[in-house]
Amino acid sequence: MPYAWPQDTDFARWELDVLERDCPVCGRRMHICDHRYRHFHTLGGPVELVCKLNHCPDPTCPGHARTHSPELEVTIALPKWAIGWDVLCWIGHRRWARHWSISQIQAELSDRYGIRLSTDSLARYIRHYQIMLAARQQDPSALRRQYESVAEIILSIDGLQPEKGHETLYVVRELTQKRVWFAEALISATAAEVRRLIAQAKAWAEALGKPVALWLSDRQDAFVTGIAAEFPEVPHRYCQNHFLRDVAKPVLEADSHTKVQMRKKVRGLRAIEQAVLKRQGVAASGTAPGDDGQAAMTATAVPADPPGPESASAGAVVLDYCAAVRGILNDDQGGPLHPPGLRMAAALEEVRASIQRDLDEKKGGSQRSNSVAWPVASTAASMTSGPNKRRSEATSRTSRRLPRPSILEEGAARTARGSSRR
Ligand SMILES: [Zn+2]
After folding, report:
1. 53 CA distance to ligand 1 centroid (A)?
2. What is the whole-number distance in angstroms between the Cα of residue 23 and the centre of ligand 1?
3. What is residue 307's predicted lDDT score, i.e. its pLDDT?
4. CA nearest to 219, candidates 196, 236, 198
């Protein structure tokens, strides 16, 4: 469907002439016989391109019937495109290098450049770009240029499942140039199918005239037999990533067990939070704290002042600590080299030290001794078990970024100073 341009579009006018003006048959200078107008978007704004069409003026010349278009037109925009190459490259780069979604690209094109494309045509342009990219990726002459100065080739093969239940995508990469050579989705990765890919890699290496020094893979059976058959002399090593992951398995298992132990020990955040919130609610409504269990817990959890501004800010500090600890307990980032359990232990230790510093400061500032939230946390743990854990998991995604204990201490210090001035 042709692109619908608004009536008031302000086009920049570009003119293109034929460069080779002599008739290819008789050699006479050709005449301009017509003009072709086309419109497309560029990143610089909408363009009206005027193509001057030429033909041989001699009606007896066999070249007379043929009309010549400007040679450079295709370097600005391909026929029937509503965008120039600059826009296509912009779209392709956002899609494949930045992994933007089509709707993101669509919105940004519209907001930033005033280029409005339907999702259908955007998808079509992305497809064009993808085809060109694939053709260039496998272009033998480009590949030869890249490998001119390479002495040896190191190849790797691995199967990836982009989505569960879908066929596995087998990717052959060359590691000295960090380049994907080719990839193919295999519905059934039989030894014969996998060997075909390895043979294809062999053909590529031979076409480049470069020796293969090494193969890397996770050494699944089909790779081992296929590579041994096609590259009998070439060593085949375990991929470092897979190797590390396998070696790390027992480490991560132990780490995971430790995490469970720590989570068992540090519990009851919800009860503390509820107590603080309830107390704050009571303070806001101006009535005395009730005599139920929650309030009793509050009495030990936060300074036993009559509700006032200090106790409110003390409550806020307690809530901040709870949020920090919850985040720590739910943080499962980190791989085998930075086991999450070790991170968790270090972070909890930091919180403990931070609370201790708060306590020390408070002792220095005012002599009133208070029970603190911390010991209560493990006491309360026995009261709230299951639901608390589920709740923590639910909040974990939103509470990834957490205040550092030092920031929490500032709040605690303010509160402590406030209390001691009274
Ligand atoms: Zn002619």
Report:
1. 15
2. 5
3. 53
4. 236
Write the pLDDT tens digit of every residue in 168-200: 899 999 999 999 999 898 887 788 999 999 999
Rounded (5°) CA angle 359-365-368: 70
Q: Which of 8-22, 43-57, 86-100, 380-394 has the lowest mean pLDDT?
A: 380-394
Q: Which residues contact 322 (CB under 8 A, 6 or more apart)?
A: 269, 272, 273, 373
Give the global pTM: 0.51
Using the mean position of ligand 1's atoms as its centre, give its distance from the Cα of residue 34 in Å. 17
**CA 387 to centroid of ligand 1, rounded, Å:** 89
Higher per-residue pLDDT: 186 or 34: 34
The mean pLDDT value of the chain amounts to 82
Residue 379 has pLDDT above 50, yes or no: no
The total number of structural domains in the chain stands at 4
Q: In whole angstroms, give the CA distance from residue 133 to residue 89.
A: 11
Q: Are residues 324 and 404 in the same domain?
A: yes
Question: CB neighbours of 39 closer than 8 A, spacing ≥ 6?
Answer: 3, 5, 9, 11, 46, 47, 48, 49, 82
- What's 83's DSSP letter? B
- Domain match, 260 and 303 both: yes
Give, for 388, the enclosing helix (H) or strand (E).
helix 386-396
CA-nearest of 36, 42, 120, 108 to 75 is: 42
* Tally of residues, the chain: 422
* Residue range(s) defining the domain that contains residue 91: 85-137
DSSP 8-class letter at 178: T
The average pLDDT across 115-124 equals 95
Q: Are residues 89 and 46 in the same domain?
A: no
Residue 35, classed as helix, strand or coil, is strand
Report how far ligand 1's centroid is from the alpha carbon of 65 (Å).
9
Q: Judge whether residue 295 has pLDDT over 70.
A: no
For residue 67, how far is its CA from the centre of ligand 1 (angstroms)? Answer: 11
